[in-house]
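Hi V.,

Quick status before I head out on leave. The structure for the redesign project is tokenized and pasted below; the design run finished overnight.
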């Protein structure tokens, strides 16, 4: 099996765990657990595509997601400064791994996702995830990754439905 095909399978698994399952329920912890599994799949996907900026940004997002999961139970994770530290770190990595405009889109999408994962309010989390899908769609168009494009279009749709269902309709 080629690296490209395996990367597309990883993206498909990420769609299932990161985009479809979590937005069917209104539980912050369940959303974050699904995002952890999804994050691992995205790291594999970007690594196999040979896109270092996206790979490192996906790794940073995964670390933030894991920290976000424990944010309420461990006092030293309650600081609002963690996202700033990770965005600065992500900026440095993007500068050193920049290959084309897709690197910038990966950085922007990852930064918005990172801010979303750190939110305590699920409503704000969903809005930031929705905004993050836009630069990721641009990234996928530039780097020609079909499953990534499908994933982010599904993300936009699922997030819009979840925002309507849980935040507007209520």
């Amino acid at each position: 099996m080629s690296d490209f095909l395996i990367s597309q399978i990883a993206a498909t698994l990420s769609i299932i765990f990161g985009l479809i399952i979590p937005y069917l329920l209104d539980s912050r912890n369940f959303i974050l657990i699904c995002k952890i599994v999804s994050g691992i799949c995205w790291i594999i996907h970007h690594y196999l595509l040979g896109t270092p900026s996206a790979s490192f940004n996906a790794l940073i997002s995964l670390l933030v997601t894991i920290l976000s999961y424990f944010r309420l139970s461990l006092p030293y994770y309650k600081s609002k400064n963690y996202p700033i530290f990770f965005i600065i770190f992500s900026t440095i990595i993007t500068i050193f791994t920049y290959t084309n405009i897709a690197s910038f889109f990966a950085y922007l999408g990852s930064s918005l996702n990172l801010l979303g994962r750190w939110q305590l309010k699920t409503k704000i989390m969903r809005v930031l995830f929705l905004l993050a899908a836009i630069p990721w769609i641009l990234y996928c168009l530039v780097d020609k990754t079909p499953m990534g494009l499908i994933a982010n279009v599904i993300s936009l749709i699922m997030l819009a439905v979840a925002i309507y269902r849980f935040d507007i309709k209520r």
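Above is the designed sequence. Residues 146-168 form the longest helix (23 residues).

G. will cover questions while I'm gone.

Best,
W.
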